């Protein structure tokens, strides 16, 4: 079977950028020069986004990003597809690289315990562990981990209020495991829970995407597909495009 020609790189890194606006022009210029498409977000707290193009183009841009302050060890997850999943290239400067809206939440200072995909099944199978899906309601609707709690939040900004409203249900000293698509929302949500006084907080390192890449389907506790924010709409085990379609509002068409 021929290798799909388009390489997709999903990446993020919490790092301190003193002047994120100054980083935008050279990054955008390089992306456009090598023919990449996708979206990258820059903020004082770091970088986040997904880009797609040829292997060589992705390598050049990742080399540029790794040279940014604090980004040498940036987390990158790769997948492939036959058609370009983005229409154009955008590099935006934002207040946050993932919007939670809780001032002072800083994953570079405090964060939960990372759990490798190989160890995730054992953790979430523990009956004493509360497993929480931190993604939006329309993402959860097409796939989730077996037994996970769905907060039914329309946006990530709604997560802090949901947790504060429901915290007493989890007991005085809960053991909480959280997951999201690529890991970035979990970094922030675990930092938030730690700041709220929850001691035993864990999250899936690399997110669902890394789990679906590493864990064989026959051993997997994932059920359904994983929503992605590009024209592929969703991916399954092995990060193979799921074949779903999107509604005009960006949500997934349900049969």
From TrEMBL:
CDD domains: RHOD_YceA (cd01518). Residues 125-220 form the Rhodanese domain. Keywords: Oxidoreductase, tRNA processing. It catalyses: uridine(34) in tRNA + AH2 + O2 = 5-hydroxyuridine(34) in tRNA + A + H2O. Pfam families: Rhodanese (PF00581), UPF0176_N (PF17773). InterPro entries: Rhodanese-like_dom, Rhodanese-like_dom_sf, TrhO, TRHO_N. Its EC number is 1.14.-.-. It is an enzyme of class 1 (oxidoreductase). Transmembrane segments: none annotated. Belongs to the TrhO family. Catalyzes oxygen-dependent 5-hydroxyuridine (ho5U) modification at position 34 in tRNAs. This is tRNA uridine(34) hydroxylase. It comes from Alteraurantiacibacter lauratis. The lineage of its organism: Bacteria, Pseudomonadati, Pseudomonadota, Alphaproteobacteria, Sphingomonadales.
